[in-house]
Amino acid sequence: MASWMRKGREAGWTAVGAGADGIYGVTVLAPKVSGGRPLVSGCGSVAGGRLDAESLAKLSKILAVPGCPWTVTLDRDAYKILVVAEPPVKADELDQSVRWAISTMIDYPVGDADVAWMKIPTQVSQPNRPPHLYVVSARHDNVVECINAFKQAKLSLQAIDVHETAQRNIAALVERSGEGVALLAIGELGVQFTVTFQGELYLDRYVKEAVFGPDIDDAARERAHERVVLQVQRSLDFVNRTLPFIDISRVVLAPMPHSPGLRGYLTESLPIPVEVLDLAAVFDFSKATELSNPENQAGYFVALGAALRFMNKTS
């Protein structure tokens, strides 16, 4: 589990993420000059593919960069992300204390869990607020299965990631000086809303909600829009009440594979502007020109975020 969410200072990463219709991979290289955009040197997908050795081998022929390590984002069903109070213990006792804290929050024995955590950094702005952690827990067998797939494909897996931290990394590219970023990503199977500040994750909300798809009619889509807007409104209100040092002046909407009218619904319902993110504004797609089209960016969104490990402050 040592590879989970560890610091990454390499010059680039190859990242893989699974979507509803297959797996997506990208190789992203760090900017050569300060303030430059990360370069996407390649991208590829395996339609209908699973995260197995065969699919990974296909991706590696497109993406492999000599010496570039690989990272993978776990499927959402393979892990839980939990918020717990930071145990007031010594560093060498933290692992055991965190495991005890989550033992009643997961549906399998904590001894079977692989666990990683990161601080929610409120101490500077709110020194009297009890410190909390984001804790990620996954069954050890699921993690080992993932690791073995990369071994069988003869690929150098160096880190395992989750959707929340991948989205945080994208938000860090979008963030303006002094602002908190409210980033909303609409996927085939659910909706993720994160609030980040100074490159750190402070809030995550995930709603398993189908907003678009062949089986979604207009009435069902309208109900889904209402639930998404309500979740965003509640999350913004929570930040205003409990994290007042974070100034949120806009909601950023990540690229979507379809346009179900959600942007207009959000614009009408929220008290702050809604902006659609074109990833071409923050990445250099000159070597992966198909990603210049915003409609093609949605499937690669998680992989692009996970590949930004070289810019991470804490994980």
Structure description:
- With 315 residues, the protein is an alpha/beta fold.
- The protein is built from eight helices and 13 strands.
- The radius of gyration is 19 Å and the shape is globular.
- It starts with 11 loop residues before the first strand and ends in a 9-residue tail after the last helix.
Keywords:
five-stranded mixed beta sheet, disordered N terminus, 315 residues, Nucleotidyltransferase, domain 5, 13 strands, alpha/beta
Strand and helix map with partners:
Blueprint: E1 12-19, E2 22-29, E3 39-47, H1 53-63, E4 70-73, E5 79-85, H2 94-102, E6 113-120, E7 132-139, H3 140-152, E8 157-161, H4 163-174, E9 180-186, E10 191-197, E11 200-207, H5 218-242, E12 251-253, H6 262-269, E13 274-276, H7 294-297, H8 301-306
Parallel strand pairs: 1-4, 4-8, 9-12, 12-13
Antiparallel strand pairs: 1-2, 2-3, 5-7, 6-7, 9-10, 10-11
Estimated share of beta-strand residues: 25-35%
Rough outline: globular
| CATH topology grouping of one domain | Nucleotidyltransferase, domain 5
Cα-to-Cα separation, first versus last residue = 13 Å
Q: Low-confidence runs (pLDDT<50, min 5 residues)?
A: 1-8
Quick rundown:
The protein is an alpha/beta fold and 315 residues long.
